[in-house]
Write a structure and sequence with these properties.
This protein is of the alpha+beta class and 315 residues long. It is 19% helix and 38% strand.
Length: 315
């Protein structure tokens, strides 16, 4: 392991219990962490109960590894257990001041113009993250909310950082306030929600300014209280945003976490990215039967240290 890398062991377990038997289930899983320049998946396995009838693996249109499952016989429960070991390298951009990344980035207007239709070169990989998607809206309400942060001539990363800080300061984290179906306009109006809502809100603001920004799903190490052991299942899936800056380090994406008011680094583990949650939902599918169901999700993120060449989990 690199002396600069953080290594994690991650367990993500999803369990459905159905009121009546399900006769057919087809599921799409985004549970395999993707490899990228700052992250390497060392080991990964997915186990499913009951045993699947058919399965295949592929990459989706964003390059995320996905697994498709089919269960074609009656069953009253579904348990998907994903287990991974991941190395994450430091990947903050080379900034003059990491607390305020204003110096190296171009103005936000310059970035918007570079992404505009008819620009050369055409930045196709980034431009597909400029538009509305199922959970992200491009509307004047979001442009108005973002406008105080996007003053004329302001460096783009400085403006995005200011927007992130405003969301962190002005919105309350409230797991009871929203569901996956809550419109992002309601989140803006009521100023409360969870990490998924804050990511969709920030994406709506950025895309309404003409910028390219994508939704990132993954995990965040949760620190237990001092003197307390790390509890199994106490962690959770997380979400943040990534903004494209064409003139930074030759063109790169920079991550921002509005829920925690920071730039993600080795404490964030990337699972997948897309336009919004709909593109990267950890588990989604269709079933025949089942009626009502109960859902339980447990995530455990455990740091790993090497001792005399062997890996050991931290308590």
């Amino acid at each position: 392991m690199s002396p600069f890398a953080a290594r994690y062991h991650i367990v993500h377990e999803t369990r459905y219990s159905y009121e009546t038997p399900v006769s057919l289930s087809r599921q799409l899983l985004h549970l395999t962490p993707r490899d990228c320049s700052w992250q390497r998946c060392l080991a990964h396995r997915i186990s499913v109960k009951p045993e699947v009838t058919a399965a295949r693996e592929r990459n989706d249109c964003f390059g995320n590894p996905v697994r498709e499952l089919a269960i074609e016989f009656p069953h009253r429960s579904l348990c998907v257990h994903a287990e991974s070991t991941i190395d994450v390298l430091p990947h903050l951009p080379a900034l003059a001041d990491r607390a305020l990344p204003a110096g190296p980035s171009p103005t936000w207007e310059t970035v918007r113009e570079a992404l505009a239709y008819g620009s050369r070169p055409v930045l196709l990989d980034a431009s597909r993250f400029q538009f509305e998607s199922p959970y992200v809206r491009v509307k004047h309400e979001f442009a108005s909310y973002a406008r105080p942060s996007f003053t004329p001539g302001r460096p783009v990363l400085d403006a995005v950082l200011a927007l992130m800080r405003r969301i962190y300061d002005e919105f309350d984290f409230d797991p009871e306030a929203t569901t996956v179906a809550t419109p992002v306009l309601k989140v803006l109006a009521e100023k409360r929600g969870v990490c998924q809502d804050f990511a969709h809100l920030m994406l709506s603001c950025l895309r309404s300014q003409g910028l390219a920004a994508r939704y990132v799903s993954g995990y965040l190490l949760t620190q237990p209280p001092p003197g307390q052991p790390r509890m199994v299942g106490a962690d959770a899936s997380h979400a943040w945003v990534s903004v494209f800056c064409p003139e930074l380090d030759g063109g790169r994406w920079v991550d921002f976490d509005p829920t925690n008011n920071l730039l993600p680094d080795t404490q964030h583990i990337t699972l997948a990215w897309g336009r919004d949650f709909a593109d990267v939902s950890p588990l989604r599918g269709i079933i025949l039967g089942g009626d009502a169901h109960e859902l339980d999700v447990a995530v455990t993120v455990t740091p790993v240290v090497e001792t005399r060449g062997e890996a050991a989990l931290l308590p």
